[in-house]
Design goal:
CATH class of the domain at 2-181 and 202-247 and 290-309: Alpha Beta
Protein name: Nucleoside-diphosphate-sugar epimerase
InterPro entries: NAD(P)-bd_dom_sf
Structural class: alpha/beta
Keywords: Membrane, Transmembrane, Transmembrane helix
Order of helices and strands: EEEHEHEHEEEEEHEEEEHEHHHHHHH
CATH superfamily of the domain at 2-181 and 202-247 and 290-309: NAD(P)-binding Rossmann-like Domain
Transmembrane segments: 336-355
Strand order of the largest sheet: 3-4-5-6-11
Length: 362
């Protein structure tokens, strides 16, 4: 299977699929529709060369892509999560109807639902979601996965064979044009937070590689759960493409702030009590700890990511430079606390505290 990328005026790139003996026997003539609202579903639509189908019902037999997260920053909490899940219900119902019998529903989620902790093993296609109940973006993704699965399963009870196929694609942190997330916003602060006690491995996924992964899923008929993240060839085959915090900071032109896990958690709790934390305290783990995926199913099906983690970091920094409105807010010290990610907020607050201590201010 090969992919041809063609420029679309005002819409980014279009990915055209050419089949070369797909193992499942399916052709490469499937129709794709994207359901969701925000920069990420818009970017997926543009690169597939299709219109975003939000609010539309489409026709049966499609590959219907449902995007849980929008790819833009937003408030967290119970009210936001409920509103997002209500909108997702409408998108998912339309996608399921569009896919119909013989169709395929693909859910774009985040591998963060599998959790992050020190020395975490690579997340695999078989890992379970562990973040249900969390009120941040990760909990919303976990709840969204469950919601779509339930909607698909409650479909055509009279003829279960007429239910669409279902695949959940869990991604590493996403980057790309206009994709502004809780993880990319860590780079809006002057310092990148790091744990003084353990090494974090960073991994990203460019939206172009996400789209090619979605096409591989649609054309090969992969079902169940698959993970997607930057990967590179090694002597033994393939391995996750990761970089350390120090390397990522150097590429991004940022300094690091090293804190013990206890100190970082203490700062996060203080900010949370003051109403200054831009997300739940649990988000801190996704900045300090590793959550790296090994995309075995996709690689076995022929997917080949093209953008490295290092190139993804350069893309994020370039996007910040091209959007001074975002960058100026995040680079303005205390502005990073109010407008950035949880990790950026802790880094900004920790830096302010360190400066105050150095001047003898308590």
């Amino acid at each position: 299977m090969s992919f041809t990328v063609t420029a679309l005026p005002g819409k980014g790139n279009k990915i055209t699929v050419a089949s070369a003996g797909i193992r499942s026997g399916r052709t490469a003539s499937r129709s794709y529709r994207v359901f969701g609202s925000g920069p990420l579903p818009d970017a997926i639509s543009a690169q597939l060369g299709v219109l975003n189908a939000r609010g539309e019902q489409g026709r049966a037999g499609l590959v219907a892509i449902v995007v849980i997260e929008s790819g833009s920053p937003h408030a967290t909490g119970a009210a936001r999560s409920l509103a997002r899940l209500e909108a997702l219900t409408v998108d998912a119902e339309h996608a399921i109807q569009a896919a119909g019998g013989g169709g395929h529903v693909i859910v774009v989620s985040s591998a963060a639902v599998c959790g992050a902790w020190p020395q975490r093993p690579d997340i695999t296609d078989a890992d379970l979601a562990v973040m249900q109940g969390d009120l941040g973006w990760v909990g919303t993704a976990a709840a969204g996965e469950s919601l779509v699965k339930e909607l698909v399963a409650s479909g055509n009870h009279a003829d279960p064979d007429r239910l669409p196929r279902l695949t959940v694609v869990r991604t590493a942190p996403l980057v790309g044009q206009d994709i502004d997330t809780a993880m990319t916003r860590n780079f809006g602060a002057p310092r990148l937070l790091r744990s003084a006690q353990h090494t974090k491995r960073w991994q990203f996924l460019h939206v172009r590689d996400l789209v090619s992964a979605l096409v591989v899923v649609g054309e090969s008929g992969l079902c169940g759960t698959v993970v997607a993240g930057a990967a590179r060839e090694s002597a033994g085959g393939w391995e996750p493409d990761t970089e350390s915090t120090e390397t990522v900071a150097r590429i991004a032109g940022r300094r690091t702030l090293s804190l013990s896990d206890k100190a970082a958690a203490s700062i996060a709790l203080r900010l949370d009590r003051a109403g200054m934390l831009p997300g739940p305290v649990s988000d801190l783990a996704f900045t300090l700890d590793s959550w790296v995926v090994m995309p075995s199913k996709l690689l076995h099906a022929g997917w080949r990511p093209q953008v490295s983690t290092a190139e993804c970091v350069r893309s994020v920094v370039g996007a910040l430079a091209n959007h001074p409105g975002v960058g100026s807010k995040l680079l303005a010290g205390r502005g990073a606390i109010a407008a950035g990610a949880v990790g950026a907020a802790v880094a900004a607050a920790g830096t302010i505290m360190a400066v105050r201590r150095s001047k003898g201010v308590t």
